[in-house]
Specification:
Elements: H1 11-23, H2 26-33, H3 37-51, E1 56-59, E2 62-65, H4 67-88, E3 101-106, H5 108-113, H6 115-125, E4 130-135, H7 141-147, E5 152-155, E6 164-172, E7 174-178, H8 188-193, E8 195-199, H9 208-215, E9 221-226, H10 232-236, E10 242-246, H11 247-254, E11 260-263, E12 271-278, H12 285-298, H13 301-305
Parallel strand pairs: 3-4, 3-5, 8-9, 8-10
Antiparallel strand pairs: 1-2, 5-12, 6-12, 7-10, 7-11
Helix pairs in contact: 1-2, 1-3, 1-4, 2-3, 6-12
Length: about 300
């Protein structure tokens, strides 16, 4: 390999190119890199000269890459990943003095039920760090990891890219939340007869509980579908509505008062809650520290040991 070619390159230009490949838009690339739009446009002109290719052509409001750009990114992406790893080995991470910004993807139930104890611990151990949370679902995590919008995600996960790693944090058990107090748990007949609120990020009116009920020949009535768990306390108050959610989120909501949680009145399998990240982040000291704390404060070691 001719290392002299590297003398022509500017690593900042390569980062701009990778970001343009991800965003396909000069304005969004500028926002992501915290640079001005003229700076990105100037960098693109330099890239076109360096590679002797237009690299992007405008199609409507998007910039579509040329075949040369597609070929370049296949080689450049792994090279930038390797450089990031090499540079991360040159410094230690001290949480008590660091002011780093961490970008974490959390599903809505995890944010409500598990983020508060993590945050309280971080205020003690690392008071100057910044945590930026994005809402994720299992179908969004791969794209957000690939784009660098998050470095770690916690949710139910499936269909991850080949370069992703996964750590099981806990096994979730579904519970039902209600606003009316009772000295006895719901029966299956009552559960099926009462109206339900479904939390669905894809605006569905059927969820996994409906699949479980179908297996035993039963149905329920979903009368409301909402996109996030955090609205449930206000929605359930003063009604006979029921809502299903993971145990840790149900417990957190019940602790706010005026809500009661209990097991579902039929057997259900546990679901896995996992932490995922790209393998390129394995050795980064700051990211390793972050993952260890997420596992400590959002995981359930006792439950996994059973």
């Amino acid at each position: 390999m001719n290392r002299n070619e590297l003398r022509k390159a500017d690593i900042n230009l390569m980062v701009v190119f990778e970001t343009l490949m991800q965003e396909r838009n000069v304005t969004r690339a500028a926002e992501k890199l915290f640079l001005g739009q003229p700076t990105i446009s100037a960098a693109l002109n330099r890239l076109r000269t360096l590679f002797n290719d237009p690299l992007f052509v405008r199609v409507g409001h998007r910039m579509e890459p040329t075949s040369r750009a597609e070929e370049i990114i296949r080689h450049l992406g792994p090279a930038l990943d390797a450089m990031s790893v090499a540079l991360s080995l040159s410094h230690d991470f001290n949480p008590s003095t660091s002011s780093m910004t961490f970008r974490v993807g959390l599903s809505d139930d995890v944010e409500f039920g598990l983020l508060p104890p993590f945050l309280r611990a971080m205020r003690e151990e690392a008071p100057n760090i910044v945590v930026v949370v994005q809402h994720v679902d299992y179908w969004r995590i791969p794209d957000l990891l690939a784009s660098g919008d998050i470095t770690v995600g916690i949710s139910q996960t499936r269909g991850l890219p080949a370069n992703a790693k996964r750590k099981l944090l806990r096994r979730m058990h579904a519970r039902v939340l209600r606003a009316d107090a009772s000295d006895r748990p719901l029966t299956l007949d009552e559960y099926c007869a009462r109206p339900h609120v479904l939390v669905s990020h894809t605006a569905n009116t059927s969820g996994i509980a409906d699949e479980w009920l179908e297996e035993i020949g039963r149905k329920r009535r979903v009368v409301l579908s909402v996109p996030q768990f955090s609205s449930l306390p206000a929605l359930l108050a003063g009604t006979d509505l029921l809502a299903g959610l993971p145990d840790y989120a149900a417990t957190a909501m019940a602790q706010w008062g005026n809500l009661f949680d209990e097991p579902l009145p039929f057997d259900t399998p546990p679901l896995d809650l996992s932490m995922v990240w790209l393998s390129v982040m394995d050795t980064d000291p700051a990211e390793r520290w972050l993952r260890s704390r997420l596992e400590r404060y959002m995981g359930d070691r006792a439950g996994l040991a059973l």
